[in-house]
Amino acid sequence: MNSMTTLIKALPSAGRTCQTRVSSLRVARPFSTTFSSPSANTKDRTREIERQILSPKSEQSEKDSSPLSAITRMMQGEKARASQAVSRDYSRMAESLEAEMIKDPYADRSPPHHLHVYAHKHNTLLTLTQPNGNPMLSMSCGHLGFRKGGRSGYDPAYQLASHVFGQIQERGYLMNIKRLEVVFQGFGLGREAFTKVLLGNEGRNIRGLVCRVTDSTRIKFGGTRSRKVRRLG
């Protein structure tokens, strides 16, 4: 045995064939007993990818579960409902306006002027006003030269109505009047006289503008006792 060892030391190339070979796997990992498989690495990678994909959803769910997000979602829902209600109101207004236009397509929607006819038993007064109530023209039978008891009657009221219609045309008020509302007050003789003039030849340019006729005569319901009836003779 001693001679063999000395021979190997003297001739190392001759003794290489006699040495026991060690596997490269044992040289690389002398202390490990398990082997690494590629399938385990792929599983780890797939798990990491799944975590990356699912992590934003979990964060979003946490945000949705917070009370602040619930308040914001409620406010957004209220805004959406309010916008829907406004759109419904606008649609209803459009439908109603369309229905009115279908019923009367040539009607002008501008506010009307007013012609007040105050027919008292002693006098007749005509007043033309703007839509906001400002007076444009006001005349009575006294402007035509009638005095005292002569102002009451059918003929003075007839002359007054024809004169007022002429003044409306001469002053150019017909250019601004698109719609006209006639307002009666009182039951004197001037009421019938004004109606005759409006329906006659003098009112041919004005009666086409009349859109409404109303009566604003005051009617007493209870209240204080009326004056004693005047009796002559």
From TrEMBL:
GO terms for molecular function: structural constituent of ribosome. The keyword Ribosomal protein applies. It comes from the Eukaryota. One of its GO terms (biological process) is translation. SUPFAM superfamilies: Translational machinery components. Keywords: Mitochondrion, Ribonucleoprotein, Ribosomal protein. One of its GO terms (cellular component) is mitochondrion. InterPro entries: Ribosomal_uS11, Ribosomal_uS11_sf. Belongs to the universal ribosomal protein uS11 family. Component of the mitochondrial ribosome (mitoribosome), a dedicated translation machinery responsible for the synthesis of mitochondrial genome-encoded proteins, including at least some of the essential transmembrane subunits of the mitochondrial respiratory chain. The mitoribosomes are attached to the mitochondrial inner membrane and translation products are cotranslationally integrated into the membrane. This is Small ribosomal subunit protein uS11m. It comes from Aspergillus clavatus (strain ATCC 1007 / CBS 513.65 / DSM 816 / NCTC 3887 / NRRL 1 / QM 1276 / 107).
